[in-house]
Write a structure and sequence with these properties.
With 307 residues, the chain is mainly alpha-helical. It has two domains: 108 residues, Beta Polymerase, domain 2, CATH 3.30.460.10; 188 residues, Up-down Bundle (Four Helix Bundle (Hemerythrin (Met), subunit A)). 61% of the residues lie in helices and 3% in strands. It has eleven helices and four strands. The protein has a two-stranded parallel ribbon. Strands 2-4 form a two-stranded parallel ribbon. The radius of gyration is 22 Å and the shape is globular. The termini are far apart. The relative contact order is 0.09.
Amino acid sequence: MPPIASWMPVYDPSTAFPCIGIAEEYFEILARELTKALTEQTHEGYLYRVDLRLRAEGSVGQLTRSLDEYDKYYRTRGQVWERLALLKAWPIAGSQEVGRSFVKLVRPFVLGAPSERSDVEQGLAIVEDVRSVKERIDVKMAERGQEQRNVKLGGGGIREIEFFVQTIQALAGRRLPGILNRGTIGSLARLHKAGILSAKQQSGLTRAYQFLRDVEHKLQMVHDMQTHALPDRQDKLERCAIRMGYIGASRSVALNQFQADHAAHRTVVHDIFRSFFETPKTSKLFKAMLRAINKRNRPIRRLKAEG
């Protein structure tokens, strides 16, 4: 099954076009044609599923924007979910210079500029914003009856791990650059190294992430569709368990073991997610993050005082 490519076309009109209007039209057409080439079905299949929803204003926004336009957008209208998504941003094709300029441009938006507000005040505000996004997702999952069946967006799913990791990175990454990593598993290891996660928490979240991603891939292999919900029919669930490598005296035994493991991983993830997002003022994880920030800044403050 072809992988999903999430990309944001960005350009610098000054490098090739004297007229901004011509550059905008040219790169818009180029981006649409490239998307078509990547996704068009041929007798040999297709290259990628392309997700363009991470661009400014999501699916309703124009396809391409210049560096200056993105700079203005993120300074005036950028949202918290975009801060989290852009933690993974990296140039993959075209001009590496333009790509690196974009990554540098969005860094103050992603990691936050220095502020007179305390670390606690800033942290609580962002946690509240991310929690609101997750609550909207939860409502949609409930409407679809997928609160427990959706391995990506449901309770204890992939998105809760990603939101947890990315929120800490957005909050602390400017002062603790060592925790920044575009991969989720690599990020969990760095959060443990920074003293924010315990070894048990890192291990639990890592194993849960690997398990849930494996389930997601097995689901999508069946009909080559971008689905994340476990089937609600017994026979299809049994086949999913077998594809995951579960073997027992019968299919029902294999399914029971798969469901037990799935529930255990979801519990680990959701408990950690809730402890951070539902009660951040008393959260041990939130306090561990603040301690890591203060520990990192203590030598800097001492040097300034001595200077």
